Amino acid sequence: MPEVNPVFLRKNKNLDKLSVITSYIQNHYAEDLRLDGVAAVFGYSPTHLSRMFQTYAGITYRDYLQSTRLEHALKDLKAGGFSILETALQNGFPSGKALTRAFKKKYGMLPGEYREMLRNGPENANESHT
Question: What pTM value is reported for the model?
Answer without folding.
Answer: 0.81
